[in-house]
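ESCALATION

Customer reports they have been waiting on this structure for their group meeting. Please prioritize. Original submission:
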Amino acid sequence: MYRPLELFISSRYTRARSRNGFISFISASSIAGIALGVIALIVVLSVMNGFHKEVRERILGMTSHVSILSYDGALHNWQDIRSQAETHPKVIGTAAFVEGQAMLVNRGRTGAAMIRGIIAGQESEVSEVGQKMLSGSLQDLTEGSYNIVLGRELANILGADLGEKVTVVIPQSTVTPVGTMPRLKRFTVSGIFEVGMGEYDRGIALVNMKDAAKLYKTGEGVSGVRLKLIDMFESRQVGRELVQQLGGLYRISDWTDQHRNFFAALETEKRMMAIILLLIVAVAAFNIVSTLVMVVTDKRSDIAILMTLGTTSGSIMKIFILQGCLIGIMGTVIGVTGGVLIAENLEQIVGWIEQVFNVRFIDPGVYYISKLPSDLHWPDVWLISISAFLLTLLATLYPAWMASRTQPAEALRYE
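Update from on-call: job pushed to the front of the queue and completed.
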């Protein structure tokens, strides 16, 4: 009894069983449509966030958060640079590396790859490749051993297995008595890794840093120093601070620079998918227009009586805006509740469906990711909720305005 008149009447209209059953059906359809649209948005965006997180972690399993590089191609005082970088409070790991392009040959098979020379003890500080070994160990990459660790796909392309010799050919020439010859060296396969990204499993080979330096004739210099941070999303800020700390003499690159186009494409895909799915909510929200139009038509005499009793046009408009908003709020609350519950338990739900119906949604023999990951972001949930409510509010404006324009004399003429 203490509620505002507009809220009291709108809630009565929403709860009451209409004489026209079709109006009730349209109202229920609007609530269900909004709920399903919100559920679809939350679940799909959570799955996309999960895939993005999975891909990002796999990329960063081989790529450093920040790299310190030289403008002229080689860092000769890399020990000092590494020591200075380690003093930064947000740097938790550093590793020097030598890198260059090469072609690998084995039994008539060839494959292009990036040869990365590493120090095994340092590499574990900045990457997870040591944890992704299928066979062998990074510790076998000792100076002078000329051992090499291949990605799984690269090993398959070359038909190489543990203990076999592969020839590494680099795009640098050596002058010999018989003419200019490409520089090459035989390496022994001592390990195979798999990080779950074709870019690395097919395009990276690891050797000892000193062996790589001899191969590429970099002397005591290295290609750069790789860094791992406490928070990878602070890589750009840390990079700027390191530039100032090192006197601006070196080039800084972070993981967002190295994969800028890829991550930009993922964000664009997520944004477009959200817009497409939001149309589902829009269609359901605009069903409220037809619902309220029929309610206004059905309640014309009630509106006329209220207006003759002194209710203003503004109050009449508020009644139907509130009625539409109540429908939208119910649909949004049901959708958010269902979407969050599904997103938080998606892996178990999908596993149960696969077990009951004996199907596989993601074949591990085809895809690197064999599960359906879900990563719920609450900012996405709030944005979806607000968008659904605003669409609902927009849908109520015309029917509410139409109700406020009712003429009591005309509405009651035949009553």
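Sent to customer with the following note: The chain is about 55% helix and 20% strand.
Escalation resolved.
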